[in-house]
Amino acid sequence: MNLGKVIGTVVATRKESSMDGLKFLLVQHLDHERKPTGSQVVAADAVGAGPGEMVLVATGSSARQTAATDKRPCDAVIMAIVDSWSVDGVTKYCKSDD
Amino acid sequence: MNLGKVIGTVVATRKESSMDGLKFLLVQHLDHERKPTGSQVVAADAVGAGPGEMVLVATGSSARQTAATDKRPCDAVIMAIVDSWSVDGVTKYCKSDD
Amino acid sequence: MNLGKVIGTVVATRKESSMDGLKFLLVQHLDHERKPTGSQVVAADAVGAGPGEMVLVATGSSARQTAATDKRPCDAVIMAIVDSWSVDGVTKYCKSDD
Amino acid sequence: MNLGKVIGTVVATRKESSMDGLKFLLVQHLDHERKPTGSQVVAADAVGAGPGEMVLVATGSSARQTAATDKRPCDAVIMAIVDSWSVDGVTKYCKSDD
Amino acid sequence: MNLGKVIGTVVATRKESSMDGLKFLLVQHLDHERKPTGSQVVAADAVGAGPGEMVLVATGSSARQTAATDKRPCDAVIMAIVDSWSVDGVTKYCKSDD
Lengths: 98, 98, 98, 98, 98
Hints:
The structure is a homopentamer. Chain A has strands at 2-11, 14-15, 24-30, 36-45, 54-59, 76-81, 84-87, 90-94. By secondary structure, chain A is an all-beta fold. The mean pLDDT of chain A is 97. Helix content of chain A is 0%, strand content 51%. At the A-B interface, β1, β2, β3 and β4 of A face β5, β6 and β7 of B.
């Protein structure tokens, strides 16, 4: 999985019908120091993530292992909202501090 | 999924017979600011996308989860046409403005 | 899929027995302007491609969706020979001009 | 698989329910000389790895081939703890020297 | 598949039990000119490859399409030992010359 931050939303009315009802969020990838890596992904939301939240994104066939995305042409899913992470014992992000 | 813009078409008459009837479109990847990332992909079209349209492309095994691409040697599919997207509440693209 | 040009061949007699009979071609990835991207791949040939030809390569599990590669440890397949492609209405490659 | 070093942990209470009980570790990718490559991944732990340990990470659908991750939206798993590695006969890492 | 050279071995006694008996080799990726690309992978060995040999590595789910790796958390496998390769008719590598 990759760490990321929800920075936006994508609207698409004309799409594969199996994608109806899925919310597409724009996620900026972050490194372990919380800096943007320069890449981003559009992920389906399986956990009710919102703008500004730190999330985990699973990609590839693993992105279809949720009730919301099963058997759909979806290659990226937000499957967790991050509360905190730490590196070498130092907290790099803590949601309650936001 | 990745954001992209349809910039061209690819014609291939000699191909795996299961690919007959699929339309191959050349898609330039865009970042969230609408700038080309420098990479591109040839994607099968599952939604009737046309030149200049902003689209979402799903790759890998997820690209085979449409009626058009099921069980075919296809690793990229356009599965949505983008109407608009926004970052931090600011609209970065809106189709009706085109 | 990615655009590429067949630039060479790879010979390997000692291999997984299921790979017997498959032809391995060296493919240089090209961008939409026909310039090498700097990466390459060794792909199994499912369509009878030859040296110098422009091709489409499918990767990952999609590379196994041909009769030649089914259930084999093959992660890249040439599944089409390109006749032509165009960008913004301008022909960037046409086989008959070669 | 990729060589990596466990550098941190990620806590996420709101997640796909199938992910309950999985431990998320932050893994920094290393090259064969033991230098960070600049990328990292959040991997589920299938072998009881701890901070500072050198590990192998499997990604994609292969990350779901463990009892802990089967059928879950998990695209990276630590499936081995590295004891040592050598390049051209020279030991580059040996756990017992740590 | 990617061209690579076996440059080392990785030892891991604590691992997913299904990986028991598999040999992990460190493979340096090479381009078509035989120059290292700067990336490497740890691959399971399905063909009895040894140090210094040029090999082909298959990744992703295709890495599990061998008897040795089936249903295992393995995302890279050496599935062929390269005898030779040529580019534009010029031999770039020939094992018997080593």
